[in-house]
Amino acid sequence: MEKDKKERTSGKPQEGSTEPGRKGKLIIFSAPSGSGKSTIVQWLMATHPELRLAFSVSCTSRAPRGTERDGVEYFFVTAEEFRRRISRGEFLEYEEVYADRFYGTLKEQVERQREAGDNVVFDVDVKGGCNIKEYYGGDALSLFIQPPSVEELRRRLEGRATDSEEAISQRLAKAEYELTFAPKFDRIVVNDDLETAKQETLELVSEFLGGKA
Predict the structure, then answer these.
(1) Cα 193 from Cα 156, distance rounded (Å)
(2) What pLDDT, on the 0 to 100 scale, is given for residue 21?
(3) What gap in Å lies between CA 117 and CA 19, rounded to an integer?
(4) Is 123 helix (H, G, I), strand (E, B) or coil?
(5) d(CA 197, CA 172)
(6) 15 phi and psi, to 5 degrees?
(7) Is pLDDT above 80 for 14?
(8) 24-61 residue pLDDT tens
């Protein structure tokens, strides 16, 4: 697909920032449940503001919960409106998790964040990650956070003590399927040791954005 690209301007950008007149880039994270992806992403965003990372604001057909605000946590629309937007090709990726319960990433919102100079972070499933990477190509870095083994993943899920044995078995079956997508990502970060995985992720993202870890 054709993508809107802008010419580079002269001058050296500050670390982790975008040059004047240049769009932000995209960082895609995908992983099986229990791989530590969310922990790594949250750490990266909380401790490295110089990278100008901002979460993609997704669209959903579910109702707001608690203090959630439209346009902040999510863009809230009806299932009918979500389907209309699908038919108009407005999503980079989307998923119907349950009947009439949709989640998706709006192209227009991503471009709005990029135009503001933000480097947009996606925490998405493997198919969504592959779709976003395919659409944006070299403007996106796709990272797959991988557990050292399925056995270790089982140990972590059991250690959470939040799921039944049946639910854990279902998660593991899904994880084995998701692991087959790992070669489709730009880089694989094996989370055997969390601190090591954090630093490796930081180095990869910093290098991609033109800064130094």
Answers:
(1) 13
(2) 59
(3) 9
(4) strand
(5) 21
(6) -55, 130
(7) no
(8) 999 999 999 889 999 999 999 999 999 999 999 999 99
> Which pLDDT tens digit goes with each residue over 91-134?
999 999 889 999 999 999 999 999 999 999 999 999 999 999 99
Q: Token pair for residue 39?
A: 């922990």
**Top-confidence residue, 90 or 156:** 90
Residues 192-212: what's their mean pLDDT?
Answer: 92
The three-class DSSP label of residue 83 is helix
Neighbour-count burial for 163-185, b at 16+ CB within 10 Å, e otherwise:
eeeeebeebbeebeebbebbeeb
Question: Quick one: which of 182, 187, 179 has its CA closest to 205?
Answer: 187
- Per the model's pLDDT, the better-predicted residue between 57 and 188 turns out to be 188
Strand partners, 121: 27, 55
Rounded CA separation 101/63 (Å): 10
Structure tokens given for 106: 């709006």
Token pair 């932000």 in the structure block, residue = 24
Its sign, for the CA torsion 36, 16, 182, 101, is: positive
Residue type for position 14: Q
Helices (H), the chain: 37-47, 79-87, 107-115, 126-136, 150-160, 165-179, 194-209
CB 100 within 8 A of CB 109: no
Strand partners, 141: 27
